Amino acid sequence: MSDKIKIQLEYPMNCSPKVLYNRLSTASGLAEWFADDVRVKGNLFTFIWEGSEQQAEKALQREDQFVRYNWLDEEDGFFEFRITKDDLTGDVSLIVIDSTDEDEQEEAKGLWDSQISDLKHVLGC
Q1: Who's near 81: CB < 8 A, 6+ residues apart?
Q2: Start and end of every START-like domain (predicted)?
């Protein structure tokens, strides 16, 4: 049985949903900020960090709205990106939903803060 819990983080993004979605859903886009390298074969993504590899399946997606990846080596392990756009102001936000061990919540939040900072830098926002 898994002891994973779900965390949800929201980041304001100063870019279009289409540009953001490309960085979240493609191997080349993810390699710019998420991992050192990303290889893809069908829906199977191999993320490479400092020589170690981890695989995830792109399980769900809706263009310019969301994408979800399920880790293959973790029971109930996943991460998901949701793009929201406020109808009134036009403000775009990225919502990151991640599964993590309960005792690693703060570490996971810190990692996502760092990763999203890299993403914002790549996007110039």
Answers
A1: 24, 66, 67, 68, 94, 95, 96, 97
A2: 1-124
What single-letter amino acid sits at 121?
H
* DSSP code of residue 104: G
List, in order of start, the domains of the chain with CATH numbers: 4-123 (3.30.530.20)
Q: Which helix (H) or strand (E) holds 81?
A: strand 78-85
- Distance from C-alpha of 55 to C-alpha of 100, rounded to nearest angstrom: 16
Residue 64 DSSP one-character state: T
Return mean pLDDT, the chain: 94
Whole-number Å distance between alpha carbons of 68 and 38? 16
Q: Provide the whole-model pTM.
A: 0.92
